[in-house]
Specification:
Number of strands: 14
Oligomer: single chain
Order of helices and strands: EEEEHEHHEHEHHEEEHEHEHEHEHHHHHH
Strand order of the largest sheet: 4-5-6-7-8-11-12-13
Structural class: alpha/beta
Distance between the termini: 29 Å
């Protein structure tokens, strides 16, 4: 991997992130992303830099029912020092049972609760970024989860958005409730559910949350596409660490850049096309190990191709074939057709990646916004919302 120097920057005086008994020397967290942050991708990222690497989101009900997919999602490599799991749920009892399972069976060292997913199939049932609007439900879930996690000395954190839309913001109330409930940290994505991933993340909201919660670590998320973005977020908002999601898609070496930046180093990874190809093939090999099925692994890696080769000179016909590979041998042969000497394309390979979506009215349960408390019908229906779904 080509590593080059950029203009030097002063070292950030940012201490290691403390989450209960866990110390994260480089205060960077890989955001859980469905279908992406499996053990293969987490290993790739860990090989470049330090941080906390969170598994894909798993639903509480699926975990309690021990579905094979949920157990795969929470599996970790033997050398993952911190086994981090993110749970989604809308029923306090089921969430509590899932946390208790993780604790009693020693399956996690850190647990995060998802209150940030904007996906309609989640929000229309009252979950994800829709849930903090209901103060009583949110409080019950967080308090139950913290109580169960504390029995095993496991730190519990939450990740959330600003709110449902600009007229229904929840992040300050939710942050205070979470702090008072005993969470180890609060992470805020500076967008509302209605924004999905469009527009710009509101870092000023992250700064306001940091100011409102001086006695608990606050983490910032949204529009961190480079190490320089992370440094700027820390300086502008005062957060204790950053959460990186889409910015590392097709760029696991971003975590090397982040560690270097936080240590005051000016080195950055600038891979040429050959080095990207080598990274793609290694990713595919690790995916085969993860799934134990070469066909499934190669189907899973297809979504990563456009991200890895963003900005590089790769013909349309070759890109199409890369997105249809079905075996390691086929992938190796197709990658060999790339112009191995093609250099790093600079800014064309950087910046936003993945689908941003467009602003839209969030899908919500009936009469959800009429009150910040659950009504009888909503309380009755909420248990049925524990669907086996994944989100981000």
């Amino acid at each position: 991997m080509t590593v080059v120097a950029t203009p030097p920057a002063p070292k950030l005086e940012l201490p290691p992130l403390k989450l209960g008994p866990i110390t994260v020397d480089t205060p960077v967290i890989l955001a859980p992303m469905a279908g992406i942050t499996n053990s293969a991708f987490r290993r790739l990222c860990r090989e470049y830099g330090g941080g906390l690497y969170v598994a894909e989101m798993v639903t509480s009900r699926a975990l309690v029912e021990r579905t094979p997919e949920s157990l795969r999602i929470i599996s970790h490599d033997d050398d993952e020092k911190v086994r981090s799991v993110q749970l989604y749920g809308v029923d306090p009892v089921t969430v509590g049972q899932a946390v208790r399972m993780l604790v009693d069976e020693d399956r996690a060292d850190h647990i995060d609760l998802n209150f940030g997913c904007p996906v309609p199939k989640v929000t229309r049932r009252g979950g994800g970024s829709a849930l903090p609007w209901k103060i009583d439900l949110f409080t019950s879930i967080v308090q139950t989860a913290v109580r169960e996690a504390s029995k095993g000395g496991i730190p519990l954190t939450i990740k959330m958005r600003k709110g449902i839309d600009e007229d229904h913001l929840t992040y300050l109330d939710a942050g205070r409730i979470a702090r008072d409930s005993g969470v180890a940290a609060v992470a805020l994505h500076g967008r509302t559910a209605s924004q999905f991933y469009s527009g710009q993340a509101d870092w000023s909201a992250i700064a306001r949350l940091r100011e409102a919660l001086p006695d608990v670590p606050v983490l910032g998320n949204g529009d961190i596409w480079s190490a320089e973005d992370a440094v700027r977020m820390v300086r502008e908002t005062g957060v204790d660490g950053v959460v990186v999601g889409r910015g590392c898609q097709g760029r696991p070496w971003l975590f090397g850049d982040l560690q270097a930046a936080f240590e005051g180093s000016d080195t950055r990874h600038k891979p040429n096309l050959q080095q990207v190809a080598e990274g793609v093939y290694r990713h595919a090999e690790l995916m085969v190990e993860t799934f134990g099925d070469e066909g499934k692994a190669l189907r899973e890696i297809r979504k990563h191709m456009a991200w890895y080769f963003k900005g590089y000179v790769v013909g349309g016909e070759l890109r199409t074939r890369l997105a249809l590979v079905s075996s390691l041998q086929g992938l190796r042969e197709t990658l060999a057709e790339l112009d191995q000497d093609s250099p790093y394309p600079g800014v064309d390979a950087e910046g936003p990646r993945g689908r941003a979506g467009s602003p839209k009215k969030p899908a919500l349960p009936k009469d959800w916004l009429l009150s910040r408390q659950m009504d009888v019908d909503q309380t009755r229906d909420i248990a049925a919302a524990e669907l086996d779904v994944s989100g981000g």
